[in-house]
Amino acid sequence: GLELYAITYLRCQNEYVEELQGRGMKVLAAVDFAPADARWRVAQSLTHELDEILLDNGIDVFLDCSPFIGPGRLDLDARIAVVPIFYDLIPLFHQRDYLADFNRDALASYVLAARAVARADHVIAISGAVADDARHVLGVDPANVTLHYPALNQDYLRGSNQASQDLVPSRAFAVAVTGVHKSKGLKHLLAAYQELRKRQVELDLVVVLPEQWTLEHVMDEWDPTLSANVDLRVEVSEVEKVSLQKLAKFVVHPSVEEGFGIPMAEAIALGTPVVAAENPLNREIGSKSVCFFES
Hints:
Blueprint (H helix, E strand, L loop, with lengths): L1 H21 L4 E4 L8 H18 L4 E4 L16 E6 L3 H4 L1 H4 L5 H14 L5 E3 L2 H9 L8 E3 L11 H4 L10 E5 L8 H13 L5 E6 L2 H9 L9 E5 L3 H10 L2 E4 L8 H9 L3 E4 L2 H7 L4 E3 L2
Parallel strand pairs: 1-2, 2-3, 3-4, 4-5, 6-7, 6-9, 7-8, 9-10, 10-11
């Protein structure tokens, strides 16, 4: 997910870069990833190195495509214009879930970086809901915010030709492409699925998780009664993910908070029915094409 956002926006920046270069300006677009463990220290030191690199090379504008709120990344020299991609404030809304493994310095750095968004020369938001957070939570001037939705992987534009029956369950199934943090709603999804099974609904559930550690996290609290009908998959290929989303009876998107719900947008692009949690972002993406449930 993080890489997809970053790569998408690096590609999208071409139009901005070309426009600015057309005015005789030098532009550098860069990515560093959200802090994990001690990586926030690396990001902090990178900021100081960036100052020197940018100034030495006469860069006028720094476009920052780093996923989430990288620590200190906007504290660049005042002579350099900074335009960040603003993804969401979920890590700060749910600190216990997202930042539990970080020390106080890392948390403080996240908070300072969030405040720094308001000082940016311009902000690009990935959804209208995120743009609202920039305005109402961080106090960014509405005139200083541009809305730019992510682009989907090309596989989803030709998804019907890419789907493989060999990669999906033989029985009828629904699929959720999700994560384990509280905002993703996975616990509520599994509880709801258990209720469906009690009502004799014959439908399997496939849950696609992003990384091995998320699978281990789920298994720590796993209910063995789910094993016969819930298929947990991790780090699947794009072809497998397309196949699951295309051939499912429906895609369920249980996230109660999102910056932008890529799995829901992917399912809509494939023409697969979608069931999603009721919230402003999901409404923004799904509009009238999605069946919503109260979260």
